[in-house]
């Protein structure tokens, strides 16, 4: 199978997963996407491919901006406000990286964000359904 066919299949598969995902799953997909882009950025840095590193960091930053901007601070209160601040910090770390501190900043963001994603994965199904129902009301 050609690389072009594999890529087309993967894109179709992703579109299907997005179309059938609930809000919790969509957020989880974004979170995983951010971590994936940061891992790709580290690989690009190791290969000394600065252009690719910048592209992957930019994509991860865009995901963090989206996650930050969709926080509901009215419902989430202090927790959502703290998470908003953490997203701001991570975004700043990624925006300000340069050749000397790139890996350190990327690693710090991964270290800060991984537990957030893991906690999101651990939310019980009944709590997800309750939150979704409350948002619909």
Automatic annotation (TrEMBL):
InterPro entries: FliS, FliS_sf. Keywords: Bacterial flagellum biogenesis, Cell projection, Chaperone, Cilium, Cytoplasm, Flagellum. Pfam families: FliS. It is found in: Cytoplasm, Cytosol. Coiled coil: none annotated. Its main location: cytoplasm. It comes from the Bacteria. Belongs to the FliS family. This is Flagellar secretion chaperone FliS. The gene is fliS.
